[in-house]
């Protein structure tokens, strides 16, 4: 019985603990900037990435956070209008939270896909990998969520 009470107490401490942010604290003028690589279109991996983004959004005040997803290689498939409908709904929801989704044009050209085949709110760069490099130089923290 004591073990159960101790376990419940420890779990409640972990579940309700607030995140502490490092200095300088994130704010409107100095937001946390995150760039997530999406290079695989396997449904389970894409949804894991989306869940990671939701977890980040839950912890940071919206005015103190910028999240960008750069899709390249096979990952751009996840941003096509004919991808899994439930997953696309999740992506559209994240767009409403100002998450930016960027598609690699080099991959599009290789696959002979056009912009009209992708979600409406996507933006485009010539080379997704270069965008990842430049974002990190600009202070974004690069994340591979899976």
SSE diagram, text form:
Blueprint: H1 2-15, E1 32-38, H2 43-59, E2 65-71, H3 85-96, E3 100-104, H4 105-111, E4 123-125, H5 128-137, E5 141-143
Parallel strand pairs: 1-2, 1-5, 2-3, 3-4
Record keyword descriptors for this entry.
single chain; 146 residues; alpha/beta; Hypothetical Protein Ychn, Chain: A; five-stranded parallel sheet; 5 helices; 41% helix; 17% strand
Compose a concise summary of this entry.
Helix content is about 40%, strand content about 15%. The protein is α/β, with parallel strands linked by helices and about 150 residues long.
Any overview of this molecule?
α2 runs parallel beside α3. α3 links the parallel β2 and β3. The chain has one domain (26-143): Hypothetical Protein Ychn, Chain: A. The protein has a five-stranded parallel sheet with strand order 4-3-2-1-5, with helices on both faces. The chain has five helices and five strands, in the order αβαβαβαβαβ. The chain is 41% helix and 17% strand. It is globular and about 45 Å long. By secondary structure, the chain is an alpha/beta fold.
- Written as H for each helix and E for each strand, in order along the chain, the element string is HEHEHEHEHE
Portion in beta strands: 15-25%
For the sheet with most strands, the description reads:
5 strands, parallel
What's the gyration radius in Å? 18 Å
The helix content is 40-55%
The total number of structural domains is 1
Helix count equals 5
Lateral strand order in the biggest sheet: 4-3-2-1-5
The outline comes out as globular
Q: What is the averaged pLDDT score?
A: 88
Top-tier CATH class:
Alpha Beta
CATH architecture: 3-Layer(aba) Sandwich
Terminal CA distance reads 38 Å
Q: What is the number of E strands?
A: 5
